[in-house]
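Q: Hi! Curious about what Aminotransferase class I and II looks like structurally. Here's the sequence.
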Amino acid sequence: MSSYTRRDWLRASGLLTAGLSAGLKFTKAATPTNSVQSVFINEFAILPPDLPKLRARLFANENPHGIAPSAREALVKAADLGNRYVWMEFAQLKQAISENEGVKPSNIMMSPGSSDLLMAAAAHYAKGGGTILTSAMTYDDLLERAEKFGAKIVSIPMTKNYQYDLATIKAKLTPDVKMVYIVNPNNPTGTIVPPAELEAFCREVAPKVPVFMDEAYIDFLEPADRPKLGKLVAEGQNVILTRTFSKIHGFAGLRLGYAIGQPETLKALRQYTNGEFAVSITTLMAGIASYKDVDWQNHCRTENTKARAYTAKALAELGYEVIPSYANFMLFPIRMKPKTFENQMFSQGIGIQTREFGGQPFCRVSVGTMDEMVAFVETFKKVVG
Ligand SMILES: Cc1ncc(COP(=O)(O)O)c(C=O)c1O
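A: Let's find out. The predicted structure is below.
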């Protein structure tokens, strides 16, 4: 399986085991073991407390602009509600989401980030074995967990343009397939499947097997360019969409996400979660403000597009071909040993990720502020000589 998660990268990069040549030290607790339990513990126990101060933190696809001022205000106000369990407040956010997506509030389940939903789906669909069908070069948090829970993962190679090969995925559907997992825009390639193609695929496949659409990066597409798969859910199709506030809303540390799907599917997934009460009142109230703050979302998207275009152009001028990205990161082949490149970048204060696919090393760089991307390009020039 040739795919990509934070945990894998950290392991491959030595961050979890040996530490960087930049002098990182890792506690024993952060070292992964092969036991299933450690999977849950280590997903977010990823970075050591003594990570060197970076000039550009471009390894985790975070929002460099922070949370919306309106969200901050709501968060502070909500502190006074901290003694109460969250209850009615979910309804407000679900109502707003349901209006945008054309579904009912009962089609929505909130969660502390989308990773918990991926884990729930892994546990549910891997139960009793079977196959999960997906693409190579994709985000494998769900896949790795499902494999540990007993599922077989079949990853179809990407097209030559680094896109999901939906025709081949469709051709590989067998009675053994329990779920199809699609990440769109995809991590780490940043590529998309055109909305019409995706919709046609879901219409054909979902009546046979659930289609799980991980839409963590969908907010970086212009609203008119986004697939509108909520309508398939409204029609009763077994399509599951997951979304996160970690990206355009800047809530990676606050933790908020949601799934859109059939009520019975959400009920099944809920068995493997702590329920919506796992979301704090402060995060939820900030989430409501952020969801409504379309200006802030537009601002972050515009800044992302500008900084991404600048970086892709600068890399192209240096002779590096970036895979056209629709998200807040980009992937391109490099000509150095990945570990050497990564260590040299980190030791100069630029945090990125590297990965090998089919023996070819790649750099994945998140889109930071323009200043961070200028620092990235300058350092990149020095490192590659
Ligand atoms: C494709 C994809 N899905 C899901 C996630 C999970 O994000 P979170 O748990 O912060 O919502 C990530 C995180 O980077 C991601 O890249």
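A: A fun detail: The longest helix spans residues 294-317.
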